[in-house]
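Side project, low priority. Logging it here so it doesn't get lost.
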Amino acid sequence: MGKKISFVSSKNRGITLDMLVVKDFFRVNDEKVEFKDVVANENAKNSLVKKGNISIRKEYCKNNTDIICVDGSIAGKLSKNAPEGKRVLIATPYDYQFKAINEYDKGAFKKKNTYKNFTHIIVGSPFEKELLKKCYNTPKSEIIDQVCIPYSWRLNQEEFKKKHYDKYCKHYPMLKGKKILAILLTGELDEDEENPYAEVNWNKIFDNLDEDWIILTNSGKLLENMTHIGYQHRNQFVYSNRTFDTREVLSFADCLVTNSGLYATYFAVRQKPIYCLKYTNCEFEKYMKRKFSNLYIKNVEDIDMTKFSEFTSENEKFCEYFSYDCGENPSAKISEIFE
């Protein structure tokens, strides 16, 4: 009988892209590996559901050994009777991590034990490595650096890029041969909050967009005011949300504007221009405003592709800080841990 590896996600993130990439690697390279997905939501609003999910995760982790997570789903408290095994964290930069570093920089953060029971941590970037050192106790964890996170590695593979670029061009023919500015936004505005992009002067943005560029977005909020753009710019805009997984766009976009620290981290491995757009006032937006103010955009009308198409020294600094290069396959590195 082969190895049994469990992918545990109890923070309402499901089985993530990074987990799927690792799982695919095992399927191709080690057919003896058996998988089990343990998915729950410990952040459920219903207190009884929340309590039940926490209990399920604790009981599972108490009796099982080899585990892969992308967050603190096994938590800091683990039974002393838990069996020996490999518990691997793929340190994926969700917004709670940016909250931790924002609070740390204010001097208002006490180190957490969230990650202390992981035997191995794939940090993926200098940012993650520094975050662990400042904000989390990991006394017995082996920190594995110099490899990017799994989905970043996949994004940078030529076969993956070509497959998804061709798919998008078939569905949206106007993309073919164009440079692509991807504006990918995540999170929801409060119900009583007005759409900050309702009065955007899109003609101003398109006037600074050369004919060889096209905007692709997943944001319905940006779409609301598109009826006012001039006829000459109609073929320079694509809205794609539910048709495909827009994270695939990160593999072939030429410039990214986002409010997602996760998307920015995935894209950083490609060494292309990245900017942060103010939208929901999430922790990543706050972080970028403090640390990379030259890459922070307060108003969407400030998107100026006469400037943003250049890969500046500030872009380079961001990319190098948020991703190691993708020379070594991180999934292969994770596989070695379980040998």
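Brief comment: Residues 132 and 138 are 8 Å apart (CA to CA).
Revisit when time allows.
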